[in-house]
């Protein structure tokens, strides 16, 4: 439920900042369907779409939402005439749906009062840029099963053996063995654990003196080349993704705080 609520709330926020369709009030069998109801349905549809920005700008969204609302009103009337709304399981579903609707609106109101600011986005961008760093490296490696095998390979390379040839013959990394063990340009921060430590400690052209362990096995690691950072995205290219990320964090924290205040108790079996 939390993911659904967050998605719907974020979709509403995305839609509010975009050129969304101009919905108008209309009636179905005398029942009023308001602009607000249509906008709420549109935000729900947007939240379930893998490309929300594309859906917001879709000129057909107004007609699609109108048809969905007509269908809901007509089928709702049919269900009430048949007495389906009086069934216990239906009333239970309605109660659950009511709580979900209220939760959705609570989250939306929270986001209205606590929007993500430009300052917060800039701070998050700087944090990520600092973590990426001002340098990128091109690493060459050979992955094997044991530390002993890796040590033998290091000794062979130190005696003049070809790193690329041994990588092609012995490396377990199918993605790099056929290109001499080369891993494409990346920030050292992309690597984790001992691999990250080893790479950060090597200069251009240096190979680690000892095997480097990772969950995949043992690596013979060499920093083949380095350059000033080029791959980290520009602020404007990352801005909207960061806004969405920070909105999601705020909503998750908000919901978590409300849950912590709740008095939750198990009911003893009768």
From TrEMBL:
Organism lineage string: Bacteria, Pseudomonadati, Pseudomonadota, Betaproteobacteria, Burkholderiales
Q: What is its EC number?
A: 5.2.1.8
Keywords annotated in UniProt: Isomerase, Rotamase, Signal
Q: Where is the signal peptide?
A: 1-21
Tell me which species this is from. Sutterella seckii
Superkingdom is: Bacteria
Into which family does the record put it?
Answer: Belongs to the PpiC/parvulin rotamase family.
Q: Which reaction does it catalyse?
A: [protein]-peptidylproline (omega=180) = [protein]-peptidylproline (omega=0)
Query: Domain PpiC, which positions?
Result: 134-225
Spell out the protein name for this chain.
Answer: peptidylprolyl isomerase
Q: Which GO terms describe its molecular function?
A: peptidyl-prolyl cis-trans isomerase activity
